[in-house]
Amino acid sequence: MKSDFFFVKSRTEGEHFVQYRTGSSCTDAPGKRHNQRVTIGKTVKVLTESGEEKTVFHPNDEYFRLMHEQPPAGAVLRGSGRPKAVPDEPEEYEKAGEGSVLCMGYGLAFHKEAADSGLTSALTPALGDRDAMTALAVASYYAKERERGLTLLAKHTERNLCFTGRPVDDRRACELFASFTEPERAVFFDEWLTAVRAMAPEGEERRFVFYDVTSVSSCSECIRWVAYGYNRDRESLKQVNIGLFMDEFTGLPLYCTWYDGSVNDWTI
User: What span, in angstroms and rounded, lies between the C-alpha atoms of 206 and 268?
Assistant: First the structure.
């Protein structure tokens, strides 16, 4: 059974997530097998009373379900995946308990930049006030934690002023992204292009737009553009191509779009 267990290194020193293989399938041309895994707990290093270092396994509810074992009486179990940064029912800002700290400086500075650049005025007509503030909250998080995905989004929006009324977690962000419609995208980019054009120096008649394309590997089954193609990272994974236009004067992105992952650069 040991071959069914996998150890995935955590960002925390001395900690590993433990995953269990629940199945496998051949999904690519070379016939490489891809495993379906479920996180069943994590291992952490602790010091014993004698001062020796010991590795301890902390199982979650998936472990007991898959192993057909009963958890110890009175045990509090977490679900699979990384621990959530906030409870399922996040507290609103006005209900923050004694000792809670809401950081205002970063949020105020970010929203001033968003307003001055025209980003806020471009998002609001497209999404409405509430969703525009949620989108800006996610953007403010990415500006600080762009290498961590959405892992700490809930914690960021809980502790920083984001004008959303309550913390935003990764699930809410994904639901918002998935709800964007093509008409909403069209309204946003139209407003955004108008805002960027207004930043040109007075009397400036000539300016250039730069364009580049890159690809992002993905295991998603929900993105219709994901396909096998030339992979720049030499990964045996499907991918999606992303094209970006950038303004010469401001250095700001103007427009982005995506293409089927099987399309080569020279055909885009």
Answer: 25
Single-letter code of the amino acid located at 238: K
Q: What is the pLDDT of residues 27-67, one digit of tens each?
A: 555 555 666 778 888 888 877 777 788 888 878 888 888 88
Residue of 122, 181, 173 whose CA lies nearest to 152: 173
Question: Taking residues 131-149, what's their average pLDDT?
Answer: 88
pLDDT number for residue 44: 80
| CA separation, residue 178 to residues 29, 68, 164, 172, 236 (Å) | 30, 36, 19, 10, 26
| pLDDT for res 267 | 60
Higher pLDDT, 256 or 233: 256
Global pTM reads 0.56
**pLDDT tens, residue by residue, 77-100:** 665 544 444 444 444 444 444 445
CA 59 to chain centre: 26
How many CA within 13 A on the CB side of residue 221? Answer: 1
Q: Cα(196)–Cα(55) distance, rounded to whole angstroms?
A: 55
Q: Which residue has the higher pLDDT, 82 or 69?
A: 69
| Nearby residues of 256 by Cβ (< 8 Å), 6 or more positions away | 242, 243, 244, 245
- The phi, psi pair for 238, rounded to 5°, reads -70, 165
Give the pair of three-digit tokens for residue 78: 């977490």
Q: What is the per-residue DSSP string for 147-176?
A: GGTTTTHHHHHHHB--SSSS---HHHHHHH
CA distance 157 to 140: 9
Structure tokens at 85: 């940064």
The alpha-helical segments, DSSP class H, found in 30-181 are 61-66, 105-117, 119-127, 129-145, 153-159, 170-179
